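Appendix B. One record, verbatim.
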Amino acid sequence: MHPAIQKIQEQLAPLRQQIIQHKVYSAIQDLNDLQIFMQYHVFAVWDFMSLLKALQNNLTCVTVPWFPKGSATTRYLINEIVVGEECDIDSNGIRKSHFELYLEAMQQSGANTQPIHTFTNVLQTTGNFQTAYAQAQVPTSIQNFVDYTFKIIGSGKDYLQSAVFTFGREDLIPQMFLSMVNDIDKKLPNSIAIFKYYLERHIAIDGDHHSHLAQEMTIELCNNHADRWAEVAQACQTALQMRLQLWDGAYEQIQQQKTVAKSRIL
């Protein structure tokens, strides 16, 4: 393993462990809880795609007339990842992005897709994040998460984008969460089958093949620049802190829902 990669992994280990052990996972006990989790997580799936496309824009030529841009190695690495993320296959073999697959999983489970649809529609029309947040009534923890991603995108620094993509955007999925999903799937097979498939694809592709490609891409872009590696370490730490805050927001809303449900029973 590249020594700089190993060093960053060691620096991020405590934060990664906090994410794996986050209380949101144990709070998800039924379909209603999972629906709330998905309503938060979908924003991370969406802006992950935006980070991915920013990298493709920076590392390859996406204009006409075409000219070679950057190194062929980084062009290959990012294009390989884009193919998997932007046009993967669903359980029926139909091509679609992971974001589109996630939306289908939400619809099947009964999760509320209106906020993410309103947000993306307003943003596409106006180009204004604050307007989109307001009209979609996006919680603060989601806003902060998305804002940080677009701060990295707006930096124009491909090595930072690559590093955050590599180390800051891993959906660290603990075994307890997978077990919970499997249990719900057994009880309600027609409610979360697509979500279960999404997780399986994520683990098989993103967690293995794509993570190795992304590491190679970050090594290629940072090379022997010590200042870049130092900047990368800080950016990735912040990215994981933003993920913790996102999970905090989901946890708080799940707990609020449980409190309301109990009060209705009483």
